[in-house]
Amino acid sequence: MKNKIALITGATSGIGMATAKLFAKNKMKLVLCGRRAERLKTLSEELAELTDVYTLKFDVRSKEDVKTAINSLPKPFSEIDILINNAGNAHGLDAFDEGNTDDWDAMLDINVKGLLYVTNAILPKMIDRESGHIINIGSTAGKEVYPKGNVYCASKHAVDALNQGMRIDLNGKGIKVGAINPGMVETEFSEVRFKGDSERAGKVYQGFTPLKAEDIADIIWFAVTRPPHVNIADLTVMCLDQASSTIVNKR
Ligand code: NDP
Ligand code: 8X3
């Protein structure tokens, strides 16, 4: 994997940041993406001691900004071998009839359309090279629907469908496509979902041991280090105490 180039969306936090750190330790070249420039700077300075790093600040919701950013990559970083489609969040946890349409827009625009725009911008060079690996970060929320999960679950079901659709349509073109679907991972995810209410966010993970971002990074690393003929198509992972979106053993 040394010197392979990986582009990670949502590298400023959580699963994306943990993956960036693990990839850097293994000497992969990195393109780190997110909206928070200061975090991108701090992370790239830290990882530059281990590998070559380039940062791109853009909002995945903007089709134009995505295209401009990806097209601006300098030669040493422009041939992306591995795309980690990770940027995404839940916004709100409300019954459907009490839902906030701005939250709905955010989830569908970021988790679904953002993933499409980034993939669309990167794919042509993978097709030309007949080589590449796309990992879509789905969720258990893309496998089942839970109370008040409505639109977030819909966005992750869409990721599940797109993961299958990409794999089908790219079959025979030398490109691996697979999804990693985590259950509850303690990151900034719930802080974002509850709009900065740390107390409410913290309660989500109380009384059991949730997954850590590093657990998912390990699995992503496993997926990208399989032999050329092996593609992890769809992998779901939960912590020991979680059995489904609604069944969590809290001690
Ligand atoms: P975090 O909130 O810690 O990280 C989310 C990342 O997405 C940040 O780096 C953020 O960067 C980026 N992001 C969000 N919105 C945008 C945007 N509009 N444009 C560009 N980047 C954006 O959450 P996680 O690490 O937990 O989440 C990562 C992925 O994992 C998401 O797709 C999430 O749905 C999925 N997931 C998370 C689970 C969990 O329990 N935590 C479980 C299952 C799946 P910035 O703000 O700098 O733009
Ligand atoms: C994140 C996991 O259960 O909060 O996708 O939806 S959950």
TrEMBL record:
Keywords: Oxidoreductase. The keyword S-adenosyl-L-methionine does not apply. Pfam families: adh_short. One of its GO terms (molecular function) is oxidoreductase activity, acting on the CH-OH group of donors, NAD or NADP as acceptor. Belongs to the short-chain dehydrogenases/reductases (SDR) family. This is NADP-dependent 3-hydroxy acid dehydrogenase YdfG.
